[in-house]
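Researcher: Dear colleague, please comment on this protein.
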Amino acid sequence: MSEENVQNGLSTIQQLINTVMEFFVNYSFQVLGAIIVLIIGMVAGNWVNKTLLRMFEKKKMDVTLARFIASIGRISVLVFAFIIALGKFGITIAPFIAALSAMAFGASIAIQGPLSNYGAGLSIILSRPFIVGDTISVAGMSGVVQEVKLACTVLVDEDGVKITIPNKQIVGEIVQNSRANKAAEGVIGISYSDDPAKAVSVIQKTLGQLPGVIQNPAPQVGVQAFADSSVNMGFRYWVSTVKYFQTVYAVNLAVYKAIQQAGISIPFPQREVRVVSQPEKAKEGTMSVS
């Protein structure tokens, strides 16, 4: 290697070192300041989020709306810190806003589905047709509301299965909201020879003794229908949604045993068949051949 090449290599390294040193001399404080601002912004954002949640919890505000407002507060603090950090380098935010607006306009055409979910989610959060902990039935699904997000609503059924419903499938549809509980119905047939008032009393007493049956509102018991073989006694009651099937099965068994112990008969389906014999037709006459 010639002496000239060595000198050129050393010169290049020296220029690189000078450039790095110049950068750190000119921008070290700006970079350090930007990092400090971002760290402060993250800490302040988390503090704002937790503070708002605690304040809303004390005021017993709706959980869904409280989480949404707290999240907006945290994001606002982070955005403000990011703008200040950019200012440390002398960068204005106006070009970024223009670029983001153009990107948002183009993306809105390609992702209309997700955007409609976000719009529907915002409508749900603000109008609050249901809140976390309510039991809703919508789009053929039923469960307890676990979380309401901007894009979707998460339900949980009795088996612990999570059901995620896009918010655009909820807004504009018929939503059944029974709060934390769910109505259950049952029916049992008794003989026409038994007293229906006695059956009503037995069923009401049974429903009042079962721990899983909610007493406010009170269960309803009465004659539901007059069937071919029995008088059908109907009963309606409220149960916790997370124990719906468990309670329904226990109630059906308890009612069946109570009816039998009370001496009320549960008839089998019966059908009466009558056979009517037709008399032999009389001969109209005889024909003789001479």
In short: The chain has a mean pLDDT of 82. Residues 158 and 243 are 6 Å apart (CA to CA).
